């Protein structure tokens, strides 16, 4: 029959999800700490708990020595044989300590250590269980708020939904059910913290995985997601099956699938973008809901110039630049946007500059420099003899009349 101690250990194991062996080890460690505090840290004390009966034995052990130098760890043969008449030199002999000898202070110390060990074992259990769920969705109930952070009951522990991981302007009350991304399991010297997030882009990814079977079945793939929580999310999708429209699958019949996610995010706008490896097309799609006229790219600088109709300019840029900012993050390209009127104006200015430059270049080519005129040289008689190619003029000749 199990003792009361073992029944308590079994109960702790069940309620806290802690391995019984760890509880026993914690209790042995606590009793050892208390015993050393009571009898001195120099004592060689051993604590054992019978896992079947729950019987506790605390033994002070000493080595039988001819010359006793340390009475805490050594004992003479004469004294040893008072305990065990078969004891021999060099043997280790133990004397049982009664639990009653601990006293109130030692018992309190044991209680504190037991509580600490149980907490540590509980933290390890929580860390082990919830670390496997990092990046997954969890459900919980709001317990309350502490310094603008929400405490959430997620089953075996309380999780934290920090202010920076909350959707802006979103409010919860005690007892509200909430769904969130398990962002991180963080071990601290004092405890284990399970951190939740509703602001992380991956939260939206997981919601789409729940609402869109084609994503969970890996027919439709989410290629990228960027988000400004509470305002707008842009998500790019591609299909592994040509017969499946990735955008249509995510939107659902009459928008049913995406609207379920919008409701979960309390009205946050979601742009679903068809992914393509053509940067011009992808950049144009990423600026949805604006309509695009032209996209020019510089692959070396990985920058793009996008032309939109005048009426679409503010929509393409978005409030406080949000639309173009998210599009740039989603595509990985630097994006500049101008109106068609401004584009034509700049084009005309460039054309005029080019024509002026060409005209100036043409004028420089036609205006050749004029050389200074020189008097013709007359060859001498000697030169004409020596060089046949040089013919003397008549003036060089002697006059006969």
The appropriate CATH architecture of the largest domain is 2-Layer Sandwich
- For the record, the CATH class of the largest domain is Alpha Beta
Cα separation of the termini: 167 Å
Question: What oligomeric state best describes the polypeptide chains here?
Answer: single chain
Average pLDDT confidence is 85
**Spans of 5+ residues with little confidence (pLDDT < 50)?**
372-401
Q: What is the CATH topology classification name of the largest domain?
A: N Utilization Substance Protein A, Chain:P, domain 4
- Give the radius of gyration: 45 Å
Number of strands: 15
Number of domains: 4
Envelope shape: elongated
Fraction of residues in H or I helices:
25-40%
Beta-strand percent range: 15-25%
Main sheet: strand order: 5-6-7-9-8
Please trace the helix and strand order, writing H or E for each element: HHEEEHEHEEEEEHHEEHHEHEEHHEHH
Number of helices: 13
Q: Which superfamily, in CATH terms, is the homologous superfamily of the largest domain?
A: NusA, N-terminal domain
Alpha-beta classification: alpha/beta
Largest sheet: 5 strands, mixed, barrel
């Amino acid at each position: 029959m199990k003792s009361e101690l073992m029944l308590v250990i079994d109960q702790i194991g069940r309620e806290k999800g802690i391995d019984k062996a760890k509880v026993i080890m914690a209790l042995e460690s606590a009793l050892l700490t208390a015993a050393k505090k009571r009898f001195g840290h120099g004592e060689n004390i051993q604590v054992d708990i019978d896992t079947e009966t729950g019987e506790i034995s605390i033994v002070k052990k000493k080595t039988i020595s001819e010359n006793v130098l340390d009475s805490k760890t050594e004992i003479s043969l004469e004294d040893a044989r008072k305990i065990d008449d078969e004891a021999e030199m060099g043997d280790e002999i133990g004397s049982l300590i009664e639990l009653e000898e601990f006293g109130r202070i030692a018992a309190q110390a044991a209680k504190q250590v037991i509580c600490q060990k149980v907490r540590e074992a509980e933290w390890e259990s929580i860390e082990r269980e919830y670390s496997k769920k990092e990046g997954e969705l969890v459900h919980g109930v709001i317990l309350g708020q502490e310094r603008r952070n929400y405490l959430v009951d997620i089953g075996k522990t309380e999780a934290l939904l920090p202010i920076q991981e909350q959707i802006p302007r979103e409010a919860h009350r005690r007892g509200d059910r909430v769904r969130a991304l398990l962002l991180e399991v963080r071990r601290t010297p004092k405890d284990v913290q399970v951190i939740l997030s509703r602001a992380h882009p991956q939260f939206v990814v997981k919601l789409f995985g729940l609402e869109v079977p084609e994503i969970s079945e890996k027919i439709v793939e989410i290629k990228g997601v960027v988000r400004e929580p509470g305002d707008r999310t842009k998500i790019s999708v591609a299909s592994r099956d040509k017969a499946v429209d990735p955008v249509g699958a995510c939107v659902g019949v009459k928008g049913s699938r995406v609207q379920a996610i919008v409701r979960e995010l309390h009205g946050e706008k979601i742009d679903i973008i068809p992914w393509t490896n053509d940067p011009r097309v992808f950049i144009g799609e990423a600026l949805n809901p604006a309509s695009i006229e032209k996209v020019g790219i510089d692959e070396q600088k990985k920058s793009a110039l996008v032309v939109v109709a005048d009426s679409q300019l503010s929509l393409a840029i978005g409030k406080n630049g949000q639309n173009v900012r998210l599009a740039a993050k989603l595509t990985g390209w630097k994006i500049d946007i101008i109106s068609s009127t401004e584009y034509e104006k700049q084009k005309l200015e460039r054309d005029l500059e080019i024509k002026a430059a060409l005209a100036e270049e043409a004028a420089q080519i036609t205006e050749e420099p004029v050389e200074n005129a020189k008097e013709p040289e007359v060859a001498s008689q000697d030169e004409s003899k020596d060089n046949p190619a040089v013919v003397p003029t008549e003036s060089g000749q002697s006059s006969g009349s």
